[in-house]
Write a structure and sequence with these properties.
By secondary structure, the protein is an alpha/beta fold. It has ten helices and 14 strands. The strands form four sheets. It has an eight-stranded parallel β-barrel with strand order 3-4-5-10-11-12-13-14, surrounded by seven helices. Strands 1-2 form a two-stranded antiparallel ribbon. Helix 1 runs parallel beside helix 2 and helix 5 packs parallel to helix 6.
Length: 362
Amino acid sequence: MGIAPPKLFEPITLGNLTLAHRLWVAPMCQYSATDGMPGEWHLAHLGSFAIGRAALVMTEATAVLPEGRITSRDTGIWNDAQADAWARIVRFIHSQGVSAGIQLAHAGRKASVHPPQEGRGAVPVDEGGWVSRGPAALPYGALPSPAPLTVDEIEQVVAAYAAAARRARTAGFDLIEIHAAHGYLLHEFLSPLSNSRTDSYGSDETGRRKLLVNVVDAVRFAVDDALPVVVRLSASDWVPGGLFVRETAETAQTLEKHGVDLVSVSSGGNDHRQDIPVRPGYHVPLSRLMREQVSIPVGVAGLITSPQQAETVLVGDGADVIYVARQFLREPTFALRAAAELGGKLAWPIQYGMAKYAGSIP
């Protein structure tokens, strides 16, 4: 009998999409767009991971509305011109035999005008630009209080997610991830720390989930069964009185019933008082607990930086998919090195053939 292939390099199927392996590029904001348009930087940045043979290349958090951007330099897909710009990037990713995913997002009360700079954080929205919106007039830390969304405006947000999903499908993306983590709008509605509404979009856990469920339903209807739909969740707020993994697992169970194909586990971002126990693989205990509660696959991110560490997470039932960010920035060919070290079968681009790691397949 032959040696079993590494778990990291087993294919995984979500809906109609089969990914070659389980090492995915996590969304990473680049603060390099103008008017929401992805440009040359995004082509080179994301294209490098496709050359390096990641199984799935995810975009940064891409806004469904102009005021949904985290900063003025973030990408969007609220109009057709942006979708056309994304299509060029998707075509290159596909040319390398790699799948492309887009993360759809709305920053909610954490929207800012200027990207972070050395020595200072993001500039609050009241210094110009747009007014941030949220479930209630509860600010994030020192940022200005957001304007609470009316029910009509909430419905407009849902419609914007659906329209963005349709554009993403037209642009050629293979997968859609809905960003409901890190203190952005959908997470703000989920957490009692930021949602004090007393209408049907608040009051209790079911009410706080309503916006996310409606967004999932609208996105699923917009793309039908053509694309898998993934949701990223913050499993814990890391603040007393906030979300913990029990509530988030129940949310994941609800999302599974509404056609979500995978849940991606992260944490925090919704309260400046958070106390996150940051260490290598610090989200894996959360993803393992989540995996015990749902039957759909679970992805995880968070300081996973070596092939051996990623393989250990999968073999130990900590997750089904590994999202990696920083290590791909350091090493766009990280997936190729991981295959060489673990014995996975992953072919190098012919243009890079003379640079193969020892242990790579011919």
